[in-house]
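To the wet lab folks,

You asked to see what we're planning to order before we commit. Fair enough. Below is the target structure as tokens, and below that is the sequence we designed to fit it. If anything looks off to you, flag it before the synthesis order goes out.
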């Protein structure tokens, strides 16, 4: 168990010394977002009209918001990871990492307040646990997240926004590698996850609330990072092939899979609120930056003559954390 806990901590970085002081309850705290923060690289890498909305990403342990061709820091604690916008675009749920644990917090997108929703970091060292990947339900009234609380592998929990303890939602049997990347469909009837039960990770769907399971990908080298389109008809995800990683799109039932990128260096797809664009991360050898492209139609093929705009680079030299991924709000 200790070896697994060390690995989980290393996957997000060890930043216990800079975590915000723990609070006694879900009371608001200041974020320090008005403090100086190092730049993350130039934004607006493309001179064409910029896409609408705000894209949250993580660089150097802090959440940044890209909007109107510029990226500005939202946190300065060096401990923030995995941001997720609320459906109304007013709040950002995220993870803060500390010694041998992490917790879920929510902060105002335009203000200096935040609330802590889990308290794994306040436990004695031997009882500390991990909380990862907060995601809002489409209704906006609660969150999903991942935790190893009570299990060896990560399972999906749900969490109200009023400070009450979280409760388990979905668990795969221990020893099968656990679950990752939870995402609820817009109609709240299906839950997407990355499951590690096979030799390689694959994208699965779970019918809410009681199943059944449905395997959506069978990629020889693995598939992960699933994300629902805003209308619930398409799923973007990352597929590994020939040692590289590219963005793909498939229909909601797993059919008609088509590649979006072919560079072998892309991951973490994220839909625009209107569903007319995909943001993703691409690494040119100097670290990940944010790109955006119109999505193809599921079932189409690369080079089939369908006209599409070229991908556009939004940041340069930002060194974006690919594990934390992206989140896009209007």
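Sequence we intend to order:
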């Amino acid at each position: 168990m200790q070896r697994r806990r060390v690995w989980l901590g290393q996957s997000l970085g060890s930043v216990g010394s800079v975590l915000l002081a723990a609070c006694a309850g879900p009371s608001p705290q200041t974020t320090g977002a008005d403090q100086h923060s190092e730049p993350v690289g130039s934004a607006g890498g493309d001179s064409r009209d910029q896409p609408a909305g705000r894209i949250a990403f993580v660089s150097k342990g802090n959440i940044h918001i890209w909007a109107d061709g510029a990226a500005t820091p939202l946190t300065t604690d060096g401990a923030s990871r995995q941001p997720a916008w609320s459906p109304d675009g007013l709040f950002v749920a995220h993870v803060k990492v500390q010694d041998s644990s992490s917790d879920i917090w929510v902060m105002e997108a335009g203000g200096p307040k935040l609330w802590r929703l889990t308290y794994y970091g306040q436990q004695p060292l031997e009882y500390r646990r991990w909380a990862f990947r907060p995601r809002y339900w489409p209704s906006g009234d609660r969150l999903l997240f991942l935790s190893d609380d009570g299990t060896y592998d990560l399972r999906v929990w749900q969490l109200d926004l009023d400070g009450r303890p979280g409760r388990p939602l979905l668990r795969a049997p221990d020893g099968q590698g656990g679950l990752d990347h939870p995402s609820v469909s817009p109609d709240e009837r299906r839950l997407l996850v990355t499951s590690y039960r096979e030799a390689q990770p694959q994208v699965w769907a779970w019918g809410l609330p009681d199943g059944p399971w449905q395997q959506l990908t069978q990629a020889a080298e693995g598939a992960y990072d699933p994300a629902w389109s805003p209308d619930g008809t398409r799923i973007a995800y990352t597929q590994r092939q020939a040692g590289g990683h590219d963005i793909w799109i498939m229909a909601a039932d797993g059919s008609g899979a088509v590649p979006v990128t072919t560079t072998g260096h892309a991951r973490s797809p994220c839909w625009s609120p209107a569903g007319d664009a995909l943001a993703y991360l691409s690494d040119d050898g100097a670290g990940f930056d944010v790109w955006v492209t119109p999505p193809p139609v599921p079932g189409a093929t690369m080079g089939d003559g369908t006209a599409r705009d070229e991908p556009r680079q939004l940041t340069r030299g930002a060194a974006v954390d690919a594990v934390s991924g992206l989140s896009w709000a209007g």
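Structural context that might help your review: The chain has one domain: 2-329. The two ends are 41 Å apart (CA to CA).

Thanks,
Computational group
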